[in-house]
Design goal:
315 residues; alpha/beta; TIM Barrel; 8-stranded parallel β-barrel; two-stranded antiparallel sheet; 10 helices; 10 strands; globular; binds nicotinamide-adenine-dinucleotide
Length: 315
Amino acid sequence: MQYKQLGTTDLHLSVLGYGASPLGSVFKDIEESIGIRTVHTALDQGINYIDCSPYYGLTKAEAVLGKALKGVSRDKYILSTKAGRYGPDFSDFDMSPTRIQRSLEESLQRLGVDELDIFLLHDIEFVDLEQVIHESLPYLERLKQEGKIRYFGVTGYPLESFKRIVEQCDIDCILSYCRYALHDDSLTQLLPLLGEKGVGIINASPTAMGLLTKRGGPDWHPASPELIACCNAAEALCAREGVDITQLAMQFAVQHPSISSTLVGTANPTNLLNNINWINEPINDNLVQSIRLVFEGCLQTVWASGKVENQDKPF
Ligand code: NAD
């Protein structure tokens, strides 16, 4: 496993990180003991970065992850969790300092740790960015000064929201999802700004939340029918070459030099081992070129997320 520095922090993250959302049965019902075994497999294989959120399975993922981490030496993993999002609707967001404070205490308890390495505001595009800039992020800076968290940042989908935050605030990192994967690599547009500001980059969802797997995405996936059709066409192209599309998706997502870590989610130890083995194998560049052409023909690789004013334009 390779490790990379996150921005200007002293954290060195494994290039493949473990995304714990499946532990909350977000994609399908999981067996807890197998989910816990997946976390231990990740740690045994050198993955040192784990990400979670109280939103995943409405606290279930944090609770299962807490059980998995019990007895694991604290220096074996770098842990991020989030605050601000507690359900699927706009009304389930609260980025006020009071709620963030309570959220942190609840998360630390569920996870069974005293301190967080990275604390993230979850899906900022759903809230008023003025509140994020003037209340939430200054509060996270205070938590950092008080030593309750080591570093902080924001997560989300539209690049526009990240741009506004990074231009106006000092943050340690961003966590972006589905914007650097086989179907869409538009995160690269933001890299010069992030580099200039020394903001660390965490890339999530290398399989585009399941779209780039043989099983396909879950029912709740926000992708357009057009994008899903392109993913199916890409999968068929890979199958003709005898390649699992997830292999190519994993290899593609971890290879960018500016990205410190790519988070993949699974509650299946075999899938995780496959992912780890795949990223150590050479990528088939010709096949990547052919797959990229499939997605070039798909106008709608981006979907709407959050408040209209925070979304990327045009759709
Ligand atoms: P992902 O692209 O990692 O896809 C997960 C899906 O792919 C699951 O259904 C899993 O079973 C399947 N999968 C994984 N490896 C596989 C393999 N080898 N073979 C077949 N199927 C495989 O998407 P994700 O889980 O949404 O993202 C990873 C993590 O990133 C999350 O768990 C979370 O920690 C983080 N994340 C954060 C945000 C945010 O903050 N807004 C958004 C998305 C993801």
